[in-house]
TrEMBL record:
<feature type="site" description="Discriminates between blocked and unblocked aminoacyl-tRNA">
    <location>
        <position position="17"/>
    </location>
</feature>
<feature type="binding site">
    <location>
        <position position="74"/>
    </location>
    <ligand>
        <name>tRNA</name>
    </ligand>
</feature>
<comment type="subunit">
    <text>Monomer.</text>
</comment>
<keyword id="KW-0963">Cytoplasm</keyword>
<comment type="function">
    <text>Hydrolyzes ribosome-free peptidyl-tRNAs (with 1 or more amino acids incorporated), which drop off the ribosome during protein synthesis, or as a result of ribosome stalling.</text>
</comment>
<dbReference type="InterPro" id="IPR001328">
    <property type="entry name" value="Pept_tRNA_hydro"/>
</dbReference>
<dbReference type="InterPro" id="IPR018171">
    <property type="entry name" value="Pept_tRNA_hydro_CS"/>
</dbReference>
<dbReference type="GO" id="GO:0004045">
    <property type="term" value="F:peptidyl-tRNA hydrolase activity"/>
</dbReference>
<feature type="binding site">
    <location>
        <position position="76"/>
    </location>
    <ligand>
        <name>tRNA</name>
    </ligand>
</feature>
<protein>
    <recommendedName>
        <fullName>Peptidyl-tRNA hydrolase</fullName>
        <ecNumber>3.1.1.29</ecNumber>
    </recommendedName>
</protein>
<keyword id="KW-0820">tRNA-binding</keyword>
<feature type="site" description="Stabilizes the basic form of H active site to accept a proton">
    <location>
        <position position="101"/>
    </location>
</feature>
<comment type="similarity">
    <text>Belongs to the PTH family.</text>
</comment>
<comment type="function">
    <text>Catalyzes the release of premature peptidyl moieties from peptidyl-tRNA molecules trapped in stalled 50S ribosomal subunits, and thus maintains levels of free tRNAs and 50S ribosomes.</text>
</comment>
<dbReference type="Pfam" id="PF01195">
    <property type="entry name" value="Pept_tRNA_hydro"/>
</dbReference>
<feature type="binding site">
    <location>
        <position position="122"/>
    </location>
    <ligand>
        <name>tRNA</name>
    </ligand>
</feature>
<keyword id="KW-0378">Hydrolase</keyword>
Amino acid sequence: MDSRHDDGPWLVVGLGNPGPGYAATRHNVGQMVLDELASRGRLTFKTHKTNATVAEGRLAPGGPRFVLAKPNTYMNVSGGPVSQLLRFYSLDPSHLIVVQDELDIPFDTLRLKHGGGHGGHNGVRDVIAAIGTGDFTRVRVGVGRPPGSQAAADHVLKAFSAAERTTLPILVSDAADAVEQIATEGVTAAQNRFHTAR
């Protein structure tokens, strides 16, 4: 889907778990991307009546308006705040971009898509259930599969390794670039840029 929207802000939701204990984990990479976007626009996150912390504004003069939102709930029940945010801002799901961690994509890789199923991601599963459609865009940030026999649930709740942390700022910046390009040029243009090998 390539239509750009000038009739309302883009709602960008970073999935993750609340609290400082989870902030640096793989599961919270979506919220790291929102922090990067907020930094670019010098926007400040504030508490919001939709059970989320929200930062609003433009990231660049003349650019699209954004509502950057981090649900205050745990990952697996992200749908409630997302549904409330769409209603509060009177937005269609086509204005929604969800930034998520993705086990099935290698670390340091991005994949973008519009629509489709949840792919086994419980946060996305809950969003689809709550808003009644999968008709939104996802920025899927690769965190890779766990090594050896480590459980996937344990892997995503651990911090990035020292080696990963050297590359992580670039990955987060690329994901933020992808969000901006989706809003200004559409999903296909962003895919053409970010789906190619580095």
